[in-house]
Write a structure and sequence with these properties.
about 230 residues, mainly alpha, 11 helices
């Protein structure tokens, strides 16, 4: 206390040692990059939970975090595992571009999705992703996983015959891996970051409640159609 900041202490708790300057810088950067993103489902769920139980701040935060699956906050972990597997193929002798091309084409043929690509808001570019990569280059931490991320961006565009936004999840995973973090801890960063965002939403919800308005809007947006077989 009084000697290290929270980011340093988070790193110490996560890894058992204090961070290097680059680790501290990028942990801060990545936490900021994904802490807040407006009225995402996790934030809406938290606000509606607090509206239903105003005394349960912890319950409202939990409601938001419970949605940290592969669509919203868990994508960075998926990206990390994909990059680790791809890098193993590179270390076995394949070129990064060839590995990325095979991943993209195989996924496309199976009508799947490559994690870390596509975004409902940021099109055609996610400025957060580009800023992370830019700073990784500037500070000399871009390594094989960042290279693979860029190769995947090109290969995905080719397989889908159109550019798909590389969203913030892919650079978060790539930079953390190049800094030496294990894939298993990558998801901790968006969870911690979004917890701060949720607490901010809930402070606002207490001051200016909209939880029931959100619930009403959801009700009005859906039209009930009775089952004709009933």
């Amino acid at each position: 206390m009084g000697r290290v900041g929270f980011t340093d202490y988070f790193h110490l708790l996560l890894t058992g040692r204090e961070p290097t300057e680059d680790e501290r810088f990028f942990l801060d950067l990545l936490l900021v990059s994904i802490a807040e993103h407006g009225m995402m489902p996790s934030n809406v769920a938290a606000r509606m939970t607090l509206a239903a139980d105003p005394e349960s701040l912890h319950g409202a935060v939990a409601a938001g975090i419970l949605g940290s699956g592969p669509v919203v906050l868990g994508t960075s972990e998926e990206c990390a595992r994909l990059l680790v597997e791809a890098q193993q193929e590179v270390e076995a002798g394949e070129e990064p571009a060839a590995v990325a091309e095979r991943i993209a084409e195989t996924t496309r043929a199976a009508d799947g999705r490559v994690p870390g690509f596509g975004h409902p808001v940021h099109r055609p570019v996610d400025p957060r992703a580009e800023r992370i990569l830019e700073l990784a280059d500037e500070r000399g931490v871009s390594g094989p996983h960042v290279l693979l991320a860029r190769c995947l961006r090109d290969s995905v565009a080719g397989a889908w015959a159109r550019p798909l936004t590389m969203n913030v999840a892919m650079p978060i995973a790539a930079v953390l891996l190049d800094l030496g973090y294990a894939a298993d801890v990558v998801k901790a960063i968006p969870i911690l970051a979004r917890t701060a965002g949720l607490l901010a939403h809930l402070a606002e919800e207490r001051a200016e409640p909209i939880g029931f308005s959100l619930a009403r809007a959801a009700e009005e947006a859906v039209e009930y159609e009775p089952d004709a077989r009933a």
